[in-house]
UniProtKB/TrEMBL annotation:
It comes from Mycena chlorophos (Agaric fungus). This is Uncharacterized protein.
Length: 701
């Protein structure tokens, strides 16, 4: 009998089907909570996430729902009352879910719902309890009533840190007093995990817990997370109490992942380790192998390597290849100096030491060393002298950065030797240069410069000709900071000036500067950034606004109807708003009622007082309310960011946060508030009892 052919749909179905074991292997890395993260003991929880919830994996298909449910519930983190209520309701409704939970981390009290949670999780083996109870979270009866219903093998106890004297509330004291009674019933407990960061104001209660734990019949292991400098002077009484456990086999000291301990902290830790090893009772039990710095290992001398370096003969036979390879080495070496020198003293001898190794290094490395000349305090004169003695070095300089400059004549003296200079930056403390210094720069390096930033030019008497800007045909990024007055006559401006300019930054200017620019074509201009003190510029935005993609202006400019920034810049996708201590962001910045292409607004205050400064909160509230009202008139707007915005991570902080209130109000209009770190706010779980739910669907967030 011939073999029956399978239908095409059946073939597709069979090929798409994966065994549950394979699906489990795929989903486990995404759903598993690492052991070190589950046991982390620090003041700031690591489980505040703004990414998509891991429960989204369950919605992919029925196969994933079936396989992922046990994986998702294997480790449960409870950080709020809403989570506790939702979990309790889910476990009560579906009795099969409770046995899946093996690890339970409870970061607070969370009311009567915790009793229902613990009532339905009989197979919990790892329990994390936090004694850091926030003010207002006073309902611990559910947790105390439910803890005796489980019998875990591992207890992780996070107690208030040593700097928490003012934060300790009555609920913490009450919880600490009742825990010994709970612990005495956990007869299966084999491991206790604590931290060395504990407040002295609850020391007697910690010792009472330790005495109870030491009396348990199966306690074999104590783990201490070394997260603070406490307990690094003498053996703590808590460990002495735990060491009385008859079945205790070891006390392990561990440190956080990727921890680096140096200097006096390293010496203090070594002293503590030595004192613990010498202790008659604790010494034989202590295990420091997982501590980031173990003196026994750190002090072990390393044997010299027997693999002597032999210079590859093929390099010596091919000078061109040799120069290429060493050139990359030198490029990495000198670029790292440039990156590390930001904000610190730049030491030229240290940078150039490698060039003194041999003639070959000097020949290959010199052009690379001078490619980016970074000049700090006192070194501008040294560079001038070097170029005067050996002018040929100047041809190698492509970037020139002054981290401080106390003699503006040095700019001309250096630039006149540089035929390939493309970038000039002035940062930090730099003197105001005279107009003649800018003219000299234009004459000597204007044709090759692509970037000029940070040069502050003093005001020159009389009206100046804007024709000087025609000396920069290759300029792509130009920063202007000067109160010089330019002639308003259209004939004095060159239409082709700044023909390649893409980005314009204005830190200070007279109104005539914008007028002069409005007489130029500026065909490549795409971005404009104005400081918070700038006003005006209507003629400039009227002429060039249609080609701009990103614009940053002051609150004053945005609110001025005669400047008409939003009306003129009809194609921008990103708008920056700069404010200072005199003018805050408010609803007044909306000079127009609509914009079709704007996707993002960045609020960039220049002062760092935050919401505590009088009037700021009201102004921002006014701004966000107005933005919500105008959301339909800004159809492409997706994000609003603020330089001061940061997201709270605890339930109590979230309830008090103005940023959260503003973010959730904007989300109702499909606009996201973005913190300074680039993270959008994500709505927290808000549990609504099933009996009070309505048929209406909430907007997805």
């Amino acid at each position: 009998m011939p073999k029956q052919r399978q239908a095409p749909d059946a073939l597709v179905a069979s090929s798409n089907h994966l065994p549950d074991e394979i699906i489990s292997e795929i989903l486990t890395p995404a759903l598993r909570v690492p052991d070190h993260a589950f046991a982390a003991m620090s003041a700031r929880s690591s489980f505040m996430s703004f990414s998509e919830s891991s429960s989204a994996y369950l919605l992919v298909c029925k196969d994933w729902l079936r396989v992922a449910t046990p994986l998702l519930y294997a480790t449960v983190i409870i950080r709020s009352k809403a989570q506790a209520l939702a979990l309790g309701a889910a476990l009560a409704e579906n009795e099969e879910l409770g046995p899946f939970i093996k690890k339970l981390r409870v970061e607070g009290g969370f009311g009567a719902a915790m009793h229902k949670v613990l009532q339905h999780t009989p197979k919990v083996t790892h329990i994390y309890l936090s004694l850091v109870i926030a003010a207002g979270d006073n309902t611990l009866t559910g947790l105390i009533k439910g803890l005796p219903l489980i019998n875990p093998t591992v207890l992780m106890l996070d107690w208030p840190p040593s700097d928490a004297r003012l934060k300790i509330v009555n609920a913490t004291r009450s919880f600490a007093e009742q825990l010994p009674v709970v612990f005495s019933q956990w007869t299966d407990l084999t491991t206790v995990h604590i931290s060395n960061n504990a407040t002295y104001y609850l020391q007697s209660k910690f010792e009472a817990m330790a005495d109870t734990l030491a009396a348990l019949p199966k306690l074999e292991r104590v783990v201490v997370s070394v997260v603070a400098k406490d307990w690094l002077q003498f053996p703590p009484l808590v460990l002495l109490s735990l060491a009385r456990a008859p079945s205790l086999k070891r006390i392990e000291f561990i440190s956080p992942p990727h921890e680096a301990v140096v200097g006096w902290a390293l010496d203090r830790r070594r002293s503590f380790v030595q004192s613990m090893r010498n202790h008659s009772r604790l010494g034989p039990l202590c295990d420091f192998s997982q501590l980031s710095v173990d003196p026994a290992i750190a002090d072990t001398p390393q044997a010299p390597s027997l693999n002597f370096f032999v210079y590859p003969p093929q390099l010596e036979a091919n000078p061109e290849q040799e120069a290429t390879i060493w050139g990359r080495v030198f490029d990495f070496h000198f670029s790292s100096f440039v990156e590390q020198s930001s904000g610190s003293m730049f030491r030229i001898p240290r940078q150039f030491a490698i060039l003194r190794v041999c003639q070959k290094f000097h020949r290959i490395g010199t052009p690379i060393a001078y490619r980016h000349a970074l000049v700090n305090y006192g070194h501008s004169a040294s560079l001038v002298n070097t170029l005067t003695i050996n002018p040929a070095l100047g041809k190698h300089i492509q970037q020139l950065t002054f981290q401080s400059l106390h003699n503006t004549n040095h700019i001309k003296a250096i630039v006149q030797h540089t035929s390939s200079l493309s970038v000039v930056r002035l940062t930090g403390h730099v003197l105001t240069a005279p107009w003649t210094a800018f003219k000299n720069l234009a004459e000597t390096a204007g044709t090759t410069l692509t970037t000029l930033e940070g040069l502050k030019i003093g005001k020159q008497s009389g009206q100046l000709s804007p024709s000087v800007f025609a000396s920069f045909p290759a300029m792509r990024k130009f920063s202007w900071d000067s109160r010089c007055i330019f002639k308003a006559d259209r004939k004095t401006a060159s239409l082709s000036a700044f023909s390649n300019l893409v980005e314009l930054v204005v830190n200070g200017c007279d109104g005539s500067f914008f007028t002069a620019l409005s007489h130029m074509d500026l065909p490549c201009l795409r971005s404009v950034d104005c400081a918070s003190t700038i006003s005006g510029g209507g003629s400039f935005f009227e002429k060039h606004g249609s080609k701009l993609e990103e614009v940053t202006v002051s609150c004053t400019q945005l609110a001025e109807k005669r400047t008409a920034v939003l009306e003129s810049c009809s194609a921008i996708t990103r708008l920056g708003i700069r404010s200072d201590e005199k003018v805050y962001v408010s609803s007044k910045v909306f000079s127009v009622a609509s914009h079709d292409t704007l996707k993002r607004i960045d609020i960039l205050p220049t002062v760092g007082h935050g919401l505590k400064r009088p009037g700021v909160t009201n102004s921002l509230n006014d701004f966000f309310e107005k933005l919500g009202e105008l959301s339909e008139d800004f159809p492409q707007l997706e994000e609003v960011s603020h330089l001061w915005c940061s997201w709270p991570i605890t339930e109590q902080e979230i309830a008090k946060s103005k940023w959260v209130n503003w973010a959730e109000a904007l989300m109702d209009n499909d606009i996201y508030l973005v913190a300074s770190n680039g993270v959008r706010w994500r709505r927290r779980l808000q549990y609504v009892p099933k009996s009070t739910r309505t048929g209406t669907k909430r907007k997805a967030s």
